[in-house]
Every structure is written in structure tokens, then in C-alpha cells.
Design goal:
Number of strands: 2
Mean pLDDT: 95
Structural class: mainly alpha
Radius of gyration: 16 Å
Distance between the termini: 31 Å
Strand order of the largest sheet: 1-2
Helix content: 55-70%
Number of helices: 12
Order of helices and strands: HHEEHHHHHHHHHH
Low-confidence stretches: none
Shape: globular
Length: 205
């Protein structure tokens, strides 16, 4: 899809997209989740969604997938952090007027991006986790948007925790990209070249 057509879709669905955004913000606020201990968690969700706004035209396969792509993005941490279940995400999607098929697509993205149970970072994001991402339409792209948002924040906010995460993201990047790269040539599994270049520039700064 070309960028102009994508931007037109965003405008046409502006009201529904804002409803999805606000609901996601509310769910995380209800469990008192914050980002970097200073921001409402919606701050992070909006950073991830900005990546979708900037690059989503390169992966979006059809008009019908716009809403589930953004719902999967704004809700990507809702099972892991906001105490929702997979079925809760389906219900939320239908309450937000997504069709049955759209609700399923959104819930699958959210489920794929939900960490496994584990005591360490490596256990929570192991091979089974990444396999689920590689096999789920749009999940590799949303995961890349999530990583770009976190890395961008860590590289621009200088406290000890962020300084530590800068080095983690640098160290993990080769494995991370390999882990989310799908062999499926369907555009819904693509990782946009422009995003990859931007991530490389960021991590080398």
C-alpha cells in the first residue's frame, strides 16, 4: 500500500482508532502501570503506535487489517501487564466494533507478543516466544516497533536503568532480528528496510 492511501485510511478511521487508543491507556492505568516510573504506560503504547503510523503502509495487506494492526499494537502488553486474557482481548475488540475476523487478527498479534513465563529475560523471550511471533501476521513488525520505541527511549533518557538497557539492546540486536525474521514472503511478515536502517543508526550512535 502506498503511503498516501495509508494516511487516508488513518483519517477515515480516526474516531475508531482513538477509541482503541483510549481503551488501551485506561486498561494499563487501571493496574497503575507506568513507563520508566515517570510516565503513564500509554506513553510507551503511543510510541509503538507511532512506528506503525510511520511504517505501516509497507506491511498492511488490505484496508480491513488497519484496525486490528493498531489494536494489536496498542494492546500488545495487555495480557502480559494489564491482566487481560486472550478472550478478554477478543471481547475488547468486539466492543470496539471490530468484526469477528478483525478481532481474531488483533488478539493473535497480542498473544504472539506476550512473553512466556520465566525467571529471566532469556526465559521469558525464548525460542517458543519468537516462533509465535514469526508465525503470526504483523507480529514481527509490531515487535520491531516495540523494540524501536524502547531503544529510542533508552538512548534519549539518561538514567542508570536506561543506560543499562542501551547496552542490552546493542548486544541483543543481531539475535533479535534473526529471531523475529520470518521466511514467509507475505508482506504482513515484513520488516521494513527503512526501520532496520534507523535501528542500526540508533544503536551505533
Amino acid at each position: 500500500m502506498n503511503r498516501d492511501a495509508f494516511l487516508s485510511l488513518l483519517t477515515a478511521h480516526q474516531t475508531q482508532l482513538e477509541a482503541i487508543r483510549q481503551r488501551a491507556h485506561t486498561l494499563h492505568a487501571e493496574v497503575n502501570q507506568t513507563y520508566d516510573k515517570v510516565h503513564p504506560y500509554g506513553y510507551h503504547l503511543d510510541m509503538v503506535a507511532q512506528g506503525v503510523k510511520d511504517y505501516g503502509h509497507t506491511v498492511l495487506a488490505n484496508d480491513e487489517d488497519l484496525l486490528p494492526l493498531f489494536m494489536g499494537t496498542w494492546f500488545h502488553d495487555s495480557i502480559e501487564d494489564a491482566r487481560l486474557t486472550y478472550n478478554d482481548v477478543l471481547r475488547e475488540a468486539k466492543n470496539l466494533e471490530l468484526t469477528e475476523s478483525q478481532a481474531y487478527t488483533a488478539a493473535e498479534i497480542v498473544f504472539a507478543l506476550t512473553n512466556d513465563k520465566g525467571r529471566t529475560r532469556e526465559e521469558r523471550a525464548g525460542e517458543n516466544y519468537y516462533k509465535g511471533i514469526r508465525e503470526t501476521p504483523y507480529a514481527p513488525f509490531v515487535k520491531l516497533c516495540d523494540r524501536m520505541a524502547n531503544a529510542t527511549y533508552s538512548f534519549t533518557h539518561g538514567n542508570p536503568a536506561n543506560s543499562h538497557m542501551k547496552e542490552v539492546y546493542r548486544r541483543e540486536m543481531p539475535h533479535f532480528l534473526e529471531a523475529i525474521h520470518s521466511s514467509n514472503d507475505d508482506q504482513r511478515f515484513m520488516l521494513p528496510d527503512e526501520m532496520l536502517r534507523k535501528m542500526e543508526d540508533l544503536l551505533n550512535s
